[in-house]
Amino acid sequence: MISTEELVDTIRGQVLLGESMKEHTTLKIGGSADFFVDPLDRDDLCRVVALFEAHGLPYRLIGRGSNLLVHDEGVRGAVIVTSRALGEYRVRKNVLTSGAGVPLPAIAEKTFSLSLSGLEMLQGIPGTVGGAVAANAGAHGQEISDVVSWVEILDRGKPQVIPRDEMAFGYRYCSLEGRVILGVGMKLERLSDAGHNERDRLRREALQRRIVSQPLSWPNAGSVFRNPRPEENPSGLSAGQMIDACGLKGVRRGGAAISECHANIIINRGKAKAADVMELIGMTREHVRKMFGISLELELKLLGFEKTCC
Ligand SMILES: Cc1cc2nc3c(=O)[nH]c(=O)nc-3n(C[C@H](O)[C@H](O)[C@H](O)COP(=O)(O)OP(=O)(O)OC[C@H]3O[C@@H](n4cnc5c(N)ncnc54)[C@H](O)[C@@H]3O)c2cc1C
Questions:
Q1: How remote is the CA of residue 196 from the centroid of ligand 1, in Å?
Q2: What is the end-to-end Cα distance of the chain in Å, rounded?
Q3: pLDDT at 51
Q4: CB-ligand 1 contact for 256 (6 Å cutoff)
Q5: Do 107 and 134 have their domain in common?
Q6: Interhelix angle 104-113/193-213, nearest 10 degrees
Q7: Positions marked active-site
Q8: Is the beta carbon of 126 within 6 A of some atom in ligand 1?
Q9: Does residue 264 form part of some domain?
């Protein structure tokens, strides 16, 4: 086990012991992390990862916790937050080089204001660039993988640039998931004035649609389940439409509920536990399996449920 002294001596950033993960996830659920580490910069983050790897102890990078359900008993090992350490970006011509901790809404807005297209439809996704790449986040016909040219990861203590053709992306899938993502290079498309106006209209419509179709005033973590693969889904319905067809909107377990306005979103009504959310997940899967013969897969990432993490 790493002693607190060793950790504090190693890093220049902040180390919190027993920090509640409620404060670091959009669902506002979860017990405490043994070590919650907020490194000062990239070198600092690499040092913390190296220290945990040297001790064979679990750690997990998180961005804004917008796709996470954390166990009520918390997380063993370290949770390392990227916002500060990997929070810088640079735009040169149509190339964006972004740290993994940069907020996606901010960078989507910034690049679009420079008449660069490729991220504008992702502006409503409240995560970081690293979290978005790890899950190949997407919305309204755009996925982050559409513009990724390279990803920089930390491999056995050394930064390594992986070119696009050496990684695979799919629907909410990236072959680099589970690796430490430090930064991303993206090639965006320069828009003409007319093109910018047209994309701006679509972008605003998409943001507006989120406001009416998502329970934005309740803590949530976006879609809970992935949409089923088309080849296994003769109904053609989305996960949300299936859950709705089962009549599950508004169903509650403890402090958690299936949203009334979006059946694929679970909200925290105030004092929800991860166990409440897991109960809803199990119950929903059971209903959908019975009605559609489909086993829904989680889009939500779990933290603290495994014995060891990445
Ligand atoms: C209201 C709302 C709307 C949403 N809408 C969408 C949507 O339209 N489309 C969509 O795809 N998603 C959506 N999401 C889900 C979520 O915002 C995205 O998945 C986002 O990309 C997660 O980023 P994050 O930084 O919050 O990741 P986190 O939740 O912090 O982490 C998610 C996973 O990524 C890993 N990870 C994070 N950073 C790194 C890193 N630097 N290196 C390696 N692994 C890392 C974590 O370990 C974890 O496994 C929505 C969420 C909410 C709350």
A1: 27
A2: 17
A3: 94
A4: no
A5: yes
A6: 150
A7: 172, 223, 299
A8: yes
A9: yes
